[in-house]
Write a structure and sequence with these properties.
The complex is a heterodimer of chains A (about 210) and B (about 260). Chain A is an all-alpha fold and about 210 residues long. Chain A is built from eight helices and no strands. Chain A has one domain. Helices cover about 75% and strands about 0% of the residues of chain B. Classes of the chains: A mainly alpha (about 210), B mainly alpha (about 260).
Chain lengths: ~210, ~260
């Protein structure tokens, strides 16, 4: 069990890297990365639930073409981290974590877009190298790009875990009873919304023999 | 080359997308077949152009391109260069569409549904008290997904090497549509089973979350379910997420 922000931010950054930059083994999906962080922090139950909710609600968020989708792994990782660090085993706190994590994820998307724009410069540098017969720049470009990807994700998670944690804890303690009761209801209703979204996603299914 | 293909999107950029990743995969091979420096440079530069497709199915294009480059290097026929560009330009779009719907839109949700089913099942069996061995649930997701994805990725590259351009013909003969529908049908069966299990455990009055009586709880859950199915098409996930939390807070304020 660990609460080391540096270690957890590094693991989170590696999970985010899987989304586009390397492999796509799906370790970036909430159903995997949230329980992983929860397991490391000693609260697997809440993190599994967070992973389940995020996975179903954002089932359509996939990196397709040039679209930069919302990093669902960041939503689940940040909310899991905050709840495990400040209010372990609390369903209400988990929902508050999810609420707060979404704006942070939009911020991360802007960082991601900036990173991809930076990659254009890197790509031109590699291309210039090829024209001059310096093929080693291809490897350097790939390694540099991966390094910057992990670095920016790591710095983002560090920032979000620390600064977001202060905001998270500070505001949560001010909530009145009916808001907390609302969060508790949402804990059970959000998976139902997720089921609805999944059913919508698979609405056009007609098996071939059924058509005939 | 198969291992290098995992890095295809490492230097993804808005201008030429996967071009440097593509070059990174081909680099050792181009070094090997082009001993003449000028020819080698030409080969590198012709693959520095725009390239973007599904990262898994890129393997088949890579394999075909490798075969074609080999022929160019052996025969010295420059007119084959045009063929490479045609293959790359015409195959990327359709392969991206197949990959997106097959892997992102079907296999990944199916693997996650299996894990979600396990979460609900474990919640029932362990009375919502998850122990550390529940880490097996996300591991099932990863194993299930990758046990399909990795061999398919390898097979695409192998098929491209072996069949060359014929692999395109073979690919077009594969009944992707039927396969997709069958897998998606399995996904629906799992998700409907999970939904019923979920409603049985958490939905109907036993937790006192809402009214504590079956009939009203069924009303709340089914209304939310139906509304979310219909609202999913019109509103984004974030809107629905915040919307339902707001509704829950209002319900609590009203004492429901």
């Amino acid at each position: 069990m660990t609460e080391s922000i540096v270690l957890l931010a590094f693991i989170a950054a590696l999970c985010s890297t899987d989304m586009t930059a390397f492999g796509q083994f799906m370790i970036c999906r909430p159903i995997f990365c949230a329980p992983l962080i929860g397991f490391l922090m000693g609260d697997i139950g809440t993190s599994l639930w967070i992973g389940m909710i995020s996975e179903m609600i954002w089932v359509n968020e996939i990196p397709m073409g040039v679209a930069v989708s919302v990093d669902v792994s960041a939503i689940s990782i940040l909310s899991t981290f905050w709840v495990c660090k400040y209010f372990k085993d609390s369903q209400e706190a988990a929902i508050w974590g999810l609420i707060l994590a979404v704006p942070f994820t939009y911020f991360y998307r802007e960082i991601d877009v900036a990173g991809r724009n930076f990659n254009i410069k890197l790509m031109h540098w590699v291309e210039k190298g090829i024209q001059n017969g310096k093929y080693g720049r291809i490897n350097t470009g790939i390694v540099a790009s991966l390094f910057f990807f992990v670095l920016r994700a790591f710095l983002f998670y560090m920032f979000a875990m620390i600064v977001g944690g202060w905001i998270y804890e500070g505001i949560y303690l001010q909530f009145s009873a009916f808001i907390l009761e609302g969060f508790r209801k949402a804990w059970y209703l959000l998976p139902v919304v997720g089921f609805g979204m999944v059913i919508y996603n698979f609405r056009n299914i007609k098996i071939q023999f059924m058509r005939k | 080359m198969f291992i290098r293909a995992f890095f295809i999107q490492a230097l993804w950029n808005f201008e030429r997308m996967q071009n440097i990743g593509f070059l990174f995969i081909l680099k050792p091979f181009l070094y090997k077949i082009y001993l003449n420096k000028d020819k080698r440079k030409e080969a590198f530069l012709r693959h520095a152009v725009f390239f973007n497709t599904h990262p898994y199915l890129a393997n088949i294009i890579i394999a075909i391109v490798v075969n074609m480059e080999k022929k160019i290097a052996e025969s010295g026929l420059d007119e084959k260069v045009l063929d490479i560009n045609i293959i790359k330009n015409t195959m990327t779009g359709p392969l991206a569409a197949i990959g997106d719907s097959l892997f992102w839109g079907t296999l990944r949700p199916l693997a996650s549904f299996v894990s979600i089913f396990m979460v609900v099942l474990f919640a029932k069996a362990l009375n919502n008290r998850f122990e550390s061995y529940s880490i097996l649930i996300p591991l099932v997701f990863i194993v299930f997904y990758n046990i399909v994805h990795l061999p398919v990725r390898y097979w695409f590259m192998f098929m491209g090497f072996k069949l060359d351009k014929e692999s395109i013909v073979m690919l077009s003969k594969l009944e992707f549509k039927i396969l997709l529908e069958m897998v998606r049908y399995s996904g629906v069966v799992i998700i409907v089973a999970t939904l019923f299990l979920y409603l049985k455990i958490f939905g109907f009055g036993s937790n006192g979350i809402f009214f504590g009586t079956n009939i009203y709880d069924i009303f709340v859950y089914s209304t939310v379910l139906i509304l979310s199915v219909f609202a999913s098409g019109k509103f984004g996930a974030v809107f629905l997420f915040y919307g339902i939390i707001l509704i829950c807070i209002i319900m609590s304020y009203l004492g429901i």
